[in-house]
Amino acid sequence: MTTPFPVFRLLLALGAGLLLLTALPSPSRAQNIVVMVNGDPITDFDIEQRSKLDQLTTQKTPSRQEVINELIDDKVKLKEGKKYGVDPGVSDINQSYEGMAQRMRITPDQLTKSLESKGVRPETLKGRMKAEMVWTSLVRGRYKERLQVGERDVAQAVQAQTGEKLQVEGTEYKMQPIVLIVPRGSSAAFLETRKKEAETYRSRVGSCEEANSLFRSTPNATIRDSVTKTTAELPEPLRKVLDDTPIGHLTAPEVTKAGIEMVVLCSRKPTMIDTPKKREVREKMYQEKYEKTQKAYLDELRKAAMIEYRNR
Questions:
Q1: Angle at CA 141, nearest 5°, toward 139 and 145?
Q2: Based on the domain organization, do 294 and 254 belong to the same domain?
Q3: What is the DSSP letter of 166?
Q4: Buried b or exposed e, range 169-205, using 16+ CB within 10 angstroms
Q5: Are the C-beta atoms of residues 132 and 157 closer than 8 Å to each other?
Q6: Beta strands in the chain (DSSP E)
Q7: In which element (H, E) is residue 56 found?
Q8: Tens of pLDDT, residues 65-91
Q9: Helix/strand/coil for 172
Q10: By residue range, what is the domain housing residue 253?
C-alpha cells in the first residue's frame, strides 16, 4: 500500500526545475510574529519561506492565508504527535532528506544548494517533511481499523467498473532466496564442488528457521529477506517448481551470475489472486478513506487549538 505522504510529491517538482524566487526577508520583518498556535509562534519569515517552497514545488503562488493555514496545520500536527510520542529526531529527518536527494539522483549537498539558490532554507523543507511524517504515522496508527479496505468491497468495485469477477482462488508463496557465492573466473571443478555442497544443504534443511540458522553462519553464502508472491506474479515454470517443493525445503540449485541459487519455501497457502486493476481500485479506496479520515482528525484538532492572530 502506498502511504499518503504529500511531501514526496516535492520530488517531481524539485526535479522538474527550480523557480526564480525573491530574496530572503529583512531580519526585522522576519522576526515579526503573525500567529501564535498553542503558544508556538509563526513569523513573517516562516510564511515567506513556506510560500517560496510552495511556489517551488507546485509552480503556483499560494495566497498568504493559504500558507498561514498550512503552517498552523503543521504546528497542530506536531503537537499532536508529541502527545502520542511520535516525534522524529534530527537523524530521522536527515535520513528522509537524504533519501529524497537520492531519488532525485543528486547529493544532499546539491539539494541544499538548489534550495538556497532560490532563497529556500533546507530547514524549511525538513520542517515540512517532519510534519507530514508525524501526521502520516498518527493517522495510520490511530485509525488503522477504519482505514482497512475489505477484499469483498474491492472485488465488488472492480466488478462494477469492469464486469470482471475476481473470486478466483490462487496460491500465495512465501520464500527466501539463498546464494552460494561463486566468484567470477572460478574453475569448472570449483563450480561442481559448490553444486554438491548445495545438494548437501538441501538434505539438511527442513524449515525456514533451519535455513536461516544455517546460511547466516555459512561462509560464502547468503540468505536474503523473505518475499511473498502470488500465482499471478510468478511464471508457470516457477509455480510448478514451488508447488512440487515441500514446505521448508529448498528448490533444486541453479547456476546464475551470482553463483548457485536456491529458494527455501517457507509457506504456501490459498489466496485471492491479485490483479493490477484490483490493486489500483484498492489503492484508490484506501486513499479516499485516508483523506476523509485525516481531514476530520485535523478539523477536530484545529477546533481545540489556541490560535491567536497578532498581525494580519
A1: 90
A2: no
A3: -
A4: ebbbbbbbbbbbebeeeeeeeeeeebbebbeebeeeb
A5: no
A6: 33-37, 40-43, 169-181, 221-223, 227-230, 254-255, 259-272, 307-309
A7: helix 44-58
A8: 999 999 999 999 999 999 999 999 999
A9: strand
A10: 169-272
The amino acid occupying position 164 is E
Give the C-alpha separation, 228 to 109, whole Å: 37
Answer yes or no: is 131 within a domain: yes
Short-list 232, 205, 15, CA closest to 114: 15
283 within domain boundaries: no
Number of C-beta neighbours around residue 8 at 10 A: 16
Q: Are 266 and 241 in contact (CB under 8 A)?
A: no
pLDDT digits (tens, 9 = 90+) for 190-219: 999 999 999 999 999 999 999 999 999 999
- 207 domain-assigned: yes
Retrieve residue 260's grid coordinates: 548457485
- For the entire predicted model, the pTM comes to 0.61
The upper half-sphere exposure of residue 291, i.e. CA atoms within 13 Å in the direction of its Cβ, equals 7
Rg (CA), the chain: 26
Burial label, 28 (beta-carbon count in 10 A; 0-12, 13-18, 19+): exposed
For residues 185 and 137, membership in a common domain is answered with no
Residue 134: give its domain's CATH number.
Answer: 1.10.4030.10
What is the C-alpha separation between 207 and 64, in angstroms, rounded? 62
